[in-house]
Design a protein that fits this description.
There is one protein chain. This protein is about 40% helix and about 15% strand. The protein is an alpha+beta fold. It has a single domain (about 10-205), classed as Transposase IS200-like (Alpha-Beta Plaits, 2-Layer Sandwich), CATH 3.30.70. Strands 2-3-1-4 form a four-stranded antiparallel sheet, sandwiched between helices. α1 runs antiparallel to α2 (about 75-90). It is globular.
């Protein structure tokens, strides 16, 4: 994967991961997953966020993303994490989830330990943004492929496009849940990508 860089160009592209506190498997209920989808689409439509790839698993969210010109990336990402948190905690108040009290206790403990103003801390503190040169289409596609293959590596599905909460469906010509911007595959990447996808499907690559 690409190197991490401390400086952030507002027009740059980044690979980021939002990890749930204590790696709690929060995103197992459809309502919680839909809250993430709604936040992503809202920020794409009205907050200047551009998403090239995404994948939501039980305890983390992968994004390949940037912001439109003159919109601060770090500020937008913080606002996105806060918006998802707000939606989720509102849902948890009404969802009949038997794990709810246990999860809220863990989130409250995390909030206390980080001395946050908010009562609950949904996300781990760092999203580890990795800068990617947007002109390097091969590097972009390495990250897109890595994001899309997460559900396959976790043995959730056999093919990336079978996983609903992922942008692989959009890249496969299907309707995806999030309004992403598709990055055309470089000609020299097609054969390697198809070969790797076939190997993953046949379980020739192990985690």
């Amino acid at each position: 994967m690409a190197e991490k860089k401390s400086s952030q160009n507002n027009s740059a592209c980044y690979y980021v991961t939002f990890n749930v506190t204590d790696w709690i498997g929060l995103f197992v209920r459809p309502a919680y997953k839909q809250a993430v989808v709604e936040s992503l689409n809202s920020f794409i439509e009205s907050k200047g966020l551009v998403v090239y790839a995404w994948c939501l698993l039980s305890n983390h969210l992968h994004l390949l993303t940037k912001t439109r010109p003159n919109i601060n990336f770090s500020v937008t990402v913080r606002a996105l994490k806060k918006d998802i948190s707000k939606k989720l905690f509102a849902l948890m108040a009404t969802e009949p989830d038997i794990r709810k009290e246990w999860m809220l206790t863990r989130f409250e403990m995390a909030g206390h330990s980080m001395k946050r103003i908010e009562k609950y801390q949904l996300w781990q503190n760092c999203s580890n943004p990795v800068h990617i040169d947007f002109t390097n289409k091969q590097l972009l596609w390495d990250h897109i492929r890595y994001i899309h293959e997460n559900p396959v590596r976790d043995h959730i599905v056999d093919k990336p496009a079978e996983y609903v909460y992922c942008s692989a469906r959009s890249y496969n010509g299907q309707n995806g849940k999030v309004k992403i911007t598709v990055v055309p595959m470089p000609d020299n990447a097609s054969a390697a990508y198809n070969e790797l996808a076939a190997m993953l499907q046949n379980n020739e690559i192990k985690n």
